[in-house]
Design brief:
The protein is of the alpha/beta class. It contains eleven helices and 15 strands. The strands form four sheets. It has a six-stranded parallel sheet, with helices on both faces. Strands 7-6-8-9-12 form a five-stranded parallel sheet, sandwiched between helices. Strand 6, helix 4 and strand 7 form a beta-alpha-beta unit. The protein starts with 8 loop residues before the first strand and ends with a helix. The structure holds magnesium ion. Keywords: Hydrolase, Magnesium, Metal-binding.
Length: 274
């Protein structure tokens, strides 16, 4: 088994890995500090389509985790990169939150509300999704716009219960237009992985992806040659590994495993060895 501190870069899912609801999971703050003390590169990877990177950063800081905006990647920041690199000149019709509008503005992506002018329709979680938005989205796709799902998440668990997420809305537009999704942006897509590796400026095998979902977090890492750790503090259990056939390199009760390892091997000792 490769030692935990043998990587240059660490990529963390957020919900179910770093925090649940408004609370940091035990060991999360210590683990991030441990990695900072060892000069590791860190990124936080979420599939959210309703918060900007700035808002995610504010939340982490409130939980006691200092970080920069550029250390955060969301489905929306990857979508911005996607349009700039893979569809220059795109005119994107947005069905999503205010955060989607803001992140497209920051990425200098051209947007339109006219379904006949749109080259793409980007869909994220939209709590005001209604018949009118479905009609506009359907007409844009029928007019030739490519349907882009910001993430493949069918539902989103909240403290108050479960609500429909991006994929449910994408399917409504697919059904009405009788045309299929052209691309999916969020974890575990190759666009997401390449954005992250580019930001971290590292090779896949130098990066450890840590997350609570096999089909998004671990799949993202495994499919691109990163090392992967499943934490059992969120969505998936050890039984999920047999069900999905997706095998992580490490399985930990929680992210606190990294801080625990550091107690067994203090960083002063690490520096002496070097
Ligand atoms: Mg998660």
């Amino acid at each position: 088994m490769r030692p935990i501190f043998d990587f240059t870069s660490y990529l963390f899912d957020l919900d179910g890995t770093i925090y649940v609801g408004g609370k940091a999971l035990p060991g999360a703050v210590d683990t991030i500090q441990t990695l900072r003390d060892r000069d590791k590169k860190i990124m936080f990877a979420t599939n959210t389509t309703v918060y900007t990177r700035e808002e995610v950063r504010d939340k982490l800081i409130q939980l006691g985790i200092e970080c920069e905006r550029d250390e955060i990647v969301t489905a929306l920041s990857v979508a911005g990169m996607y349009f700039r690199h893979y569809a220059p000149g795109a005119k994107v019709l947005l069905i999503g939150s205010e955060a989607m509008t803001e992140e497209m503005r920051l990425s200098e992506v051209d947007t339109t509300v006219d379904p006949t002018l749109a080259t793409h329709v980007l869909v994220g979680l939209d709590r005001s999704f209604d018949f009118e938005k479905l009609t506009v989205g359907m007409n844009a796709v029928r007019s030739g716009a490519l349907l882009i799902a910001a993430n493949p998440d069918p539902f989103c668990p909240l403290d108050t219960g479960v609500i429909p997420d991006t994929w449910a809305l994408v399917r409504a537009i697919e059904t009405a237009s009788m045309l299929q999704t052209h691309d999916i942006i969020g974890k575990p897509s190759r666009y997401y992985a390449s954005y992250v590796l580019n930001q971290l400026d590292c090779r896949p095998e130098e990066c450890l992806m840590v997350g609570d979902r096999l089909e998004t977090d671990v799949e993202l890492g495994n499919s691109t040659g990163m090392y992967t750790a499943l934490v059992l503090s969120g969505a998936d259990s050890e039984e999920s590994i047999a069900r999905t056939g997706i095998e992580p390199d490490y399985v930990w009760a929680s992210i606190g495993a990294i801080a625990e390892e550091a107690r067994l091997q203090p960083s002063s000792q690490v520096k002496e060895q070097i």
